[in-house]
Amino acid sequence: MKSALLRCLYISVSVGILCSCAGQRAMHSKGSLPVAASLETHPVASTGDAADDPAVWVHPTDPARSIVIGTNKQRGLMLHAMDGSLIGEVTLPQGSRYNNVDVRYGFPVGSRVLDIVASENRSLNSIDIYGIDPSDPSTHGSPLPLSVGEIIIEAPYDVYGFGLYRSAKTGALFAFVGSKLGRVAQYRIEALEGDRVRGEFVRVLQFDSQVEGIVADDAHGWVFVGEEGRGIWKASAEPDATDAPRLVDEIRPEGPLLRPDVEGLAIYHASERGGYLIASSQGSNEYVVYTREEPHNHLGTFRIAAGVVDDVSETDGIEVTNMPLGGGFPAGAFIAQDGYNDDGLQNFKLVPWPRIAHAFDPPLMINPDFRRR
Ligand code: CA
Ligand code: CA
Ligand code: CA
Ligand code: CA
Ligand code: CA
Question: What pLDDT, on a 0 to 100 scale, did the predictor assign at position 193?
Fold first, then answer.
C-alpha cells in the first residue's frame, strides 16, 4: 500500500482533485457498480497496514463451518468463522511476516489426503505449507491448519506475492512465488514420507517490476500475475511451458479500468472452464471483472459501498468462491481486504456473490453447485 502522502499526491496529480490527507477519501471511476458488504471480519490485532490477503477454505460437508483465512502481515494467519469471528490463529515468531495465502483441496500426503493452505514468509524467505485434515474437526467445529513443511527460497530473491496451482493435466501441485524484483518462481510441492511435503524448484518467469497478486486457473493451466505498476499478465502454468507471458490488461494513463497498484487477483468458477477473473484496482478502490475464458473481455467494474458495514478502499488481496459458505452466503462470496475499517484496525469484508452478479447487466453467472473440492 502506498503511504497516505503518496496516495494524496497521486489523486491530486492524476485526477486533479485536492484531498485532505487527514482521512481517506474513496475515489472511483464513473460507472463502477456499488455493492454492499454484508459482513466484516474481526479486525487484525496489529496497527497500521497489517491485513493483506484472504483465502477461503470450504468445509467438505457443512458449508457454515468454512473458514475465511486472512493474512496479518505482522503476525501470521487469522482464521475466521463465517460470522466473521476469530476462531484461531497461526501465530509466527515476532517479526515474521506472511503476505499472501492460497488454498487447494485433496492433496495426498503420507497416509492422509489433506487440504493445503500455504503462505509466503517474508522473514524466513520461505513458503510455509499447512495441511487441513477435513476429517479432523477441532474444538471450534472446524479443523485447523498444521504445518507440513516449508520451501526455502534461495537468495538473493525476496518473497512477495504467492499463489498455488494444481495441474488438471497431472494432478501435480505447484507454488508460484513472486519477488519485488519482478521474478516469479515456480516450485513443485511433493509429498514425503511421514506426512510432510517438500518443494523442488521448477522455473522462473521474469517481469520488469514488482509483482504481487498471483492466481492460477487450474482447469485452463494458466497463471495470472499482477505487475503492480503495469498490469495483469498471463502465462501457461505447466512446468514445461516455454511461452512468454502476455498482457491481459494494462494500466493506461487515460484509464478508466486498472489504477495502480494492481493488487489481488481471484477467479470465480461458474463451471469447469467458465467464470470470471477479478482484479483489485487499488488506486481506484474498485474491482475489475473479465471473462475467465479468452480473450478475457472486460465486463464491468464494481466497488464495495457502505451498507451495514463500512465501504472498502485501498484493497490489497481479494478472494472469491462460488461454493456455499453457510447462512449468509448460500451462493458464495467475494472477500476483500479493507485498508480503512471505520470502527477498528484493518479487516476483510464479505459480499454475497449474487449481489455482485445482479449489479451487472446482463447479470454475471451464479453457480453454487460447481464443486472445486
Ligand atoms: Ca489469496
Ligand atoms: Ca503490493
Ligand atoms: Ca499487498
Ligand atoms: Ca472501510
Ligand atoms: Ca467496520
Answer: 86
177 alpha carbon to ligand 1 midpoint, in Å?
12
pLDDT of residue 21: 33
Distance 212 CA to ligand 4 centre (A): 22
Mapped onto helix, strand or coil, the DSSP state of residue 102 is: strand
Q: Could you tell me the distance, in angstroms and rounded to a whole number, from the CA of residue 240 to the centre of ligand 4?
A: 43
Amino acid identity at 84: G
Q: Which residues contact 44 (CB under 8 A, 6 or more apart)?
A: 50, 51, 70, 72, 74, 75, 78, 345, 346, 347
Stretches where the chain sits below pLDDT 50 are 1-23
State how far the Cα of 174 lies from the Cα of 171, in Å rounded to an integer: 10
Instruction: Name, in order, each residue with C-beta under 8 angstroms of 335's C-beta and a sequence gap of 6 or more.
Output: 54, 56, 68, 318, 319, 320, 348, 349, 350, 351
Distance (Å) from CA 344 to ligand 5 centroid? 7
Å from CA of 15 to ligand 1 middle:
30
Ligand nearest to the CA of 54: 1
Distance (angstroms) between ligand 1 centre and the Cα of 129 equals 14
What does the block give as the cell for 168? Answer: 488438471
In the prediction, which pLDDT does 13 show?
35
Closest ligand (CA of 100): 1
Q: What is the pLDDT of residue 139?
A: 60
Closest CA to 277 of 257, 253, 259, 293: 293
Q: CB of 2 within 8 A of CB of 308?
A: no
Residue 330 pairs in a beta bridge with none
